[in-house]
Amino acid sequence: MKSRLAPPHPPQPRGEPAGLAGAARGGLANLAGAGVAGVAGVGVTWLVARGLGPVAAGSFFAATSAFVLFGSVARLGTSTALVYWPARLRAQGRPDLIAACLRSGLIPVALLGTVLGLGLWWFAPVFFPAFSGPLRTLALFLPFAALSDALLAVTRGYRMMRPTVLLDKMTRPAGQLAGIAILFCAALFQAVPVPAWALAWVVPYLLSFAFAAFLVWRRVPFLRSGTSMRREFWAFTAPRAVASGAQTALQRVDVLLVASLAGLAPAAAYAVAGRFIVLGQLTNGAISQAVQPRLAELLSTRDTKGAARLYQGATAWLILLSWPLHLLMLNYAEVYLRLFGESYVVAASVVRVLALGMLVATGCGMVDIVLSMAGRTTWNLLNVLLALATMVSIDVVAIPRLGALGAAIGLAAAVTVNNLLPLAQIGVALRLHPFGPATRTAMLLTLLSFLAVPALIPSSPPIGTCAGIAVYALGLRLFHGRLGLQVVLAARKR
């Protein structure tokens, strides 16, 4: 059975690595979407921080963090599996089994999402009394959010980046920003309860779900096959299901711990201080989503050299895009926090600790994706659980003493564990590492441009930043060949 989703493969220019070029095309589309999502995310944070005040904003941020965490549990790791299986089966010439894989993954997500949403609505006042109001509003939308992500993963398994870009990275974040902006304007005249802000934030998930479901229903005949792939699908996915929940917990549970152990105002300060991390994660996700299916194909056919080129090239691009942000945060934490209000400037040390952790994480590239696409999901699970245990252990001890800074230390330690450990594993087991010539050049260029140059002009952040950008642009021009930018430029033209 020939899949109607599979797009034709365009001819590659002579001498161009197909996997790297394809990743560049998908990555550019995703980066455009990530830019919209990043701006919208910062805009939502700014409006909530300014419009609600520290305590009410802490309630909003804690509720949305819990929603994202439970949504990740409901997805059961299928955001990776529903990319892995279509890409792998197509590469191995067995597309007739893909329908059974989709059926095996999507039905459990729908059931668990519904159960968790109802349970969260019912028990929120018992377990999360400080922010149960907005959390109960969000809980009703939990199954739609979980299914939206799973359905979009199906399209990425067929190398279709456009639905994810348009729905998940553009339409939904823009809708959230618009809804929150309307409430912000209304709050200038009269008080608006926090649950209303939560409703404005979550409704766009319905639109994303509806369009993703229509696309998959129209193009993927996953209900027409009698073949069963449940055993194979869940043998791969079960470890990833736990790992996915633990991975999201690494990003979200710290806000909940700060709210519980230090109060809602410190939780708001911590959420605002860490908002720049989301921008870096969007960049990572944009490149990773383009790399995932191609990496799965290369590793399934044991093309280690091709996988190494793809991993190292993608890591260099990730560093070029994310390290400037993290290095600027390291230099100008107070300037960044002052945008949200003077009451948040006390969290400058939090920003700097988190920036250091993110430099380590992005310097390793999408190492967890490499491990998962090689089929080592159990290893990935153990790594994430160890990182989560590290963070929670530090948080429980440090947050009561240091507040938000204690949570930042815990997250930075966990991120380090969660990247260096799998980096060693893929080096030993797969003979892969991200530190090729392009990666090393990207590291040196960004360190020079956004750490050394601004440090020479500490009294004027705008001048220091502009000087760094000038050095950065010159470096990109001089070393574009070594950085693989000619592949990106060719992809942009096509």
How would you describe this structure in keywords?
494 residues, mainly alpha, 81% helix, disordered N terminus
Oligomer: single chain
- Specify the structural class: mainly alpha
Strand content: under 5%
Report the biggest beta sheet as strand number plus sense, adding barrel if it closes. none
Distance between the termini: 30 Å
Total count of helical runs of at least 4 residues: 21
Shape: globular
In N-to-C order, the SSE pattern is HHHHHHHHHHHHHHHHHHHHH
Rg, alpha carbons? 22 Å
The share of residues in helices is over 70%
Domain count: the total is 1
Per DSSP E runs of 2 or more residues, the count of β-strands stands at: 0
Query: Taking all residues together, what is the mean pLDDT?
Result: 83
Q: Give the low-pLDDT segments.
A: 1-18
Describe the structure.
81% of the residues lie in helices and 0% in strands. The longest helix is centred in the first third of the chain and has 35 residues, at 18-52. The protein is globular. It has 494 residues and is an all-alpha fold. The protein has one domain (18-435). The protein has 21 helices and no strands.
List the helices and strands and how they pair.
Blueprint lengths: L17 H35 L1 H22 L2 H14 L6 H30 L4 H8 L2 H16 L4 H26 L6 H9 L1 H16 L10 H32 L2 H10 L1 H26 L3 H28 L1 H6 L9 H16 L3 H7 L3 H26 L1 H26 L7 H19 L5 H18 L6 H9 L1
In a nutshell, what does this entry contain?
The protein is mainly α. The protein contains 21 helices and no strands.
